[in-house]
Amino acid sequence: MKLFRSTLSSSYKEIPCGEVRIGHSLNTKEEEFVAKRRETVFQSLQVLKIHCSKDEVPNIALLGSGGGQRAMVGLLGSLDQLKKAGLLDCILNLSGVSGSTWCMASLYQEPDWSTKLDPVIKKIIKRISGPKVSWGDAFAKLKKYYYGKDLFSLTDVWAVMVITTYVKEIDEHKLSEQWDQQSKDLFPIYTVIDKQCKQSKDDKDSWFEVSPHEAGYSLTGAFVGTSSFGSQFDNGSKKKPQDEMDMLYLQEKCYQVLMDLADMNLSVLNGKDPSHFDQSIRTNLKDKMVPAPLPESEMRDYIDAGLLLNSPYFSVLREERHIELIISLDFSEGDPFMTVRDAAEMCKKLKIAFPEINIPSEEVKKPKDFYVFEGQNKTPTVIHIPLFNVVNCGGKFGLFIE
């Protein structure tokens, strides 16, 4: 999805300080939030009889993987159980990709949702169980995108015509506006990846995060204000402003290959020649598999982070966030350990601290309900919780990839 035009190169060295912030430190407003949230975490730990000094309060991040509507509902259920166990207020960050971000976008519509989670969940479930967005409303939104944006693309069409069929609403809230109403909730971090960097296999530059205050490259350290995300920049200064993107657009994910496959099947069913779609699929797959050098480009394209890693590990592995415990909720329908293994492999390549991932061979296809991969020194501990496990599924694992 084409979200951000700038003169950013793969090294980002040419951009002076200005409206583009170059640096690895946290945004000042995020630092202020963390200080307040740690007080909430401290009080919650005391209630749970987990005693520590205020300086020893752990920074805990909760991750939601992709998985479409399954991930959306799964994250809702997980948050509900954390709330009932008194653990939700022990968590600092909530980060997601794909379907988990659909859940996050719905939650953060409600001011201080974590204090009234039960009615908020019921409201969301009622909505996604209800009627779809009408064609009239969808078309009106599409017109609004078309006439209001400099860059109108397939992304806009996909967001309005496809994503709304899952979330059952047209969410026009802005992330920065939503956060102005929040004071007691987990700090949200939405994640995507840079398409050009993914194709060049530059894992460090691929990871892009969108928080209430800033949007930018998690590991490289180049950020713009979230309300400016989508505007044009030149040499670090805003050249041409655009309205801040709404949450419907930020929830979008676009799979050209899947769309071509669907059109190819329809062609066969209608007795038409599907060769055009076959060639398109081959071209897109080739583009994804063959690395190409990253050119100097005015346009950066961002796509679903699940295409590289189906969990937002790298948003919370930023060294300056000092995360000590990562709770990974994996809603994948395939290999239940793929995300944590891939994260470990990428971290090793990028020399980022990550615990060793050792899984008994007999549990690879029949996983337990949770795993603790313990970190040492400054390495975070990871609690990995696969949705499909022996407790939830018994002996039925038909969804797992052999």
Outline the structure in words.
InterPro entries: Acyl_Trfase/lysoPLipase (IPR016035), LysoPLipase_cat_dom (IPR002642). It holds the Pfam family PLA2_B. Residues 16-402 form the PLA2c domain. One of its GO terms (cellular component) is nuclear envelope. Keywords: Hydrolase, Lipid degradation, Lipid metabolism. The protein is α/β, with parallel strands linked by helices and 402 residues long. The protein has a domain at 28-256 and 302-332: Cytosolic phospholipase A2 catalytic domain (3-Layer(aba) Sandwich), CATH 3.40.1090.10. 39% of the residues lie in helices and 16% in strands. The protein contains 15 helices and 14 strands. The chain has helices spanning 28-47, 68-84, 99-107, 117-128, 135-148, 154-167, 175-180, 195-199, 203-206, 247-250, 256-269, 275-289, 313-316, 338-350, 390-393, and strands at 2-5, 20-22, 60-64, 93-96, 187-194, 207-210, 214-217, 222-225, 232-234, 237-240, 299-304, 325-330, 371-373, 381-386. Strands 1, 2, 3, 4, 5, 6, 7, 8, 11, 12, 13 and 14 form a 12-stranded mixed beta sheet that branches. Strands 9-10 form a two-stranded antiparallel sheet. Helix 2 runs antiparallel to helix 4 (117-128) and helix 11 (256-269) runs antiparallel to helix 12. The longest helix has 20 residues, at 28-47. The protein starts with a strand and ends in a 9-residue tail after the last helix. Residues 1-17, 252-262 and 284-296 have low confidence and may be disordered.
